[in-house]
Design brief:
Helix content: under 10%
Structural class: mainly beta
Strand content: over 45%
Distance between the termini: 27 Å
């Protein structure tokens, strides 16, 4: 199944004008994501302001845990559809966004709302560098299936080693609260490295 997802992602990247595509890995997990800049398809939308996208995370039990203690025996793949409205703050290299996601695994489904932030580190004679952060939360009113609530936060540091190509180093924590005997499950808590491509 993983080979099929990689093939579909590669085909989509070549067939459509994706704004960004990203692949993140560590010793256990594989994460694929893509975002479409709606300004590329609709003249009524300013570029770099409205995005829709999707994400797939093939998380492994080694990077998951039960907050009450103990280990998970299995973990299911994580799927996500997302929407983000973003704008630049002045001309200081900062941008701020508000978004929503619809995520799903076999055990939970939630609709978290969140904030995203990106800052271009001023370094005129060096290669461009970026700091990115996000936090998404879904209370019980936005949690479905066996989920009680959801919290995700991320931090990353990007270096644009070639034009429109970035190397990224990051950390993610995806915390779910199941309405089962498992209690609060940290779906994924890990560092990762990867590539971001802009088209």
């Amino acid at each position: 199944m993983l080979k099929k997802i990689l093939l579909i992602t590669t085909t989509a990247i070549s067939a459509f004008a994706l704004h960004t595509a990203e692949i993140n890995i560590n010793d256990r997990d594989l994460e694929l994501s893509a975002k479409f800049d709606m300004g590329q398809f609709n003249d009524n939308v300013e570029p770099d302001t409205i995005f829709i996208g999707g994400k797939f995370l093939n998380g492994q039990k080694e990077n998951s845990k039960l907050e009450a203690g103990g280990n998970l025996t299995t973990i299911d793949p994580y799927f996500e559809a997302n929407f983000l409205m973003k704008r630049a703050i002045g001309d200081m290299g900062m941008s701020f966004g508000m978004g929503a996601k619809l995520n799903y695994t076999k055990n939970f489904s939630t609709l978290p709302l969140g904030l995203e932030f990106e800052y271009v580190i001023p370094a005129k004679k060096l290669i461009p560098m970026y700091v990115y952060g996000s936090v998404y939360y879904a209370p019980s009113a936005l949690s479905f299936s066996d989920a009680k609530d959801f919290l995700e936060y991320r931090l990353s540091y990007d270096i644009e080693i070639i034009e429109n190509g970035r190397l990224t180093l990051g950390y993610r924590n995806i915390n779910t609260n199941y309405d089962t005997v498992l209690g609060n499950v940290v779906y994924n808590d890990s560092f990762y490295a990867g590539f971001k491509f802009a088209f």
